[in-house]
Amino acid sequence: MTMKKKSLMSPIILAILLLASFPISGQAAETIKLGAVEPLSGTFKNIGDRYLEGVQYAAKVLNRQGGVLGRQIEVIPIDSELKPDVATRKATALILKDQVKFFCGGTGSSVGAAMSTVAEQNNAIMFSYGMDAASLTGAKCSKNFFRPGTNTDMHSYALAAYVAKSKFKKVYCIGQDYSFGHESVKAFIARLKKLNPSIEIVAEVYHPLGEKDYGPYVSRIVASGADLVFTTSWGNDLTLLVKQAKPFGLKAKFAGYYLSDEETVSAIGESELLVGSIASETYMLTIPTEENKKFIEGYYKDTGAYPFWLRGKAYTGTMFWAEALKKAKTDDVNAVIKVWEGLSFKGAAGTWTMRACDHQGQAPIWIAEIVPQSKFMKLPYVGTPIMIPPKEIEVPCEETGCKMK
Fold first, then answer.
1. How confident is the model at residue 273 (pLDDT cuts 50, 70, 90)?
2. pLDDT tens column, 356-390
3. What does the alpha-carbon distance between residue 276 and residue 254 come to, in Å, rounded to a whole number?
4. In the predicted model, is pLDDT for residue 27 greater than 50?
5. Considering the domain 32-150+290-363 in this protein, what is its CATH number?
6. Phi, psi for residue 288 in degrees, rounded to 5
7. Of 50, 138, 219, 238, whose CA is between 20 and 30 Å from 303?
8. Residue 371: in which H helix or E strand, if any?
9. What's CA 47's distance to the chain center, in Å?
10. What is the third-level CATH fold of 153-281+366-392?
11. Residues 104, 148 contacting (CB under 8 angstroms)
12. What is the pLDDT of residue 26?
């Protein structure tokens, strides 16, 4: 090799050596990992799958925009099996092995409570867009747990406000027999009695998760003379409750958190019990905002489907989390906690604000009557909703029981 060739090659070799010395596989290229804790097997798999799809779609949108902090979001599915011990064991393994410090989930308040403890013990963040038990941001609150969205108190208060002004006179209350079911039903009863004591609560009943035979329950509802059944049951429990009510000649309408569940509606099929019933949620396809219209159009273009219910909730909650990371300009947990407190985010379902005192999101609830058909389904489904503003359903910090450490 001549001296001239050596002189030409030297800068090239030097540049290669310099590039090799930089940590290009370090933090700049490293993904931000988000563990999605959902039941991905068993009876409530259809709930977990849809929540996961919403999280994954949020990551897809963020990554297409360049990621967050210049890094791609990597969603790691975690099958909780709807068991707190299973969820926490798998999450802890990810924390220790892969340094995962962000987790989310929407199914099972008992799982949420356990994950809140794991997050606090390991200085991670757990956020939930669907684990609604008020205690998670109340007596069980933690600086490492955030709930973008609403809780059982807020959700039940919104439905109570709507029912209080309605034509209904007798309400039969039924929910699932665990923390979420009890908290949601009791909050509704307390608020309705305050807003309209003339409406009679004829019963307060709880059934096991995964109940198969609702005949005895429906018989008692019919015998009570109730004209409205308030229920916060979800998934297959809600499907069976409504389907098994028809043979008993139940005439009452339903009011509940989850009547905008497209799979429940599809499983029930044509039912006069649904038309005129009342659905409520933090996200509905029929929310009449420009942001929601754009979200639906983008989702449909990408997937060929609509972001029904859980997908929209999980998507919005995940985007709110990403906003906190962007504002913090780092993925340091302590910095994200500090920035997320008091942060507002405008999304498809309106403006959500994260309250600092208990990490409970202050978000509107949307309430709609079910109509015979909509542009999204040929079965009875939610019509255009009205918005119940956060201020009308908030619980003052001093009344939540939260003592943030």
1. confident
2. 999 999 999 999 999 998 889 888 999 999 999 99
3. 8
4. no
5. 3.40.50.2300
6. -90, 60
7. 238
8. strand 365-371
9. 11
10. Rossmann fold (3.40.50)
11. no
12. 40
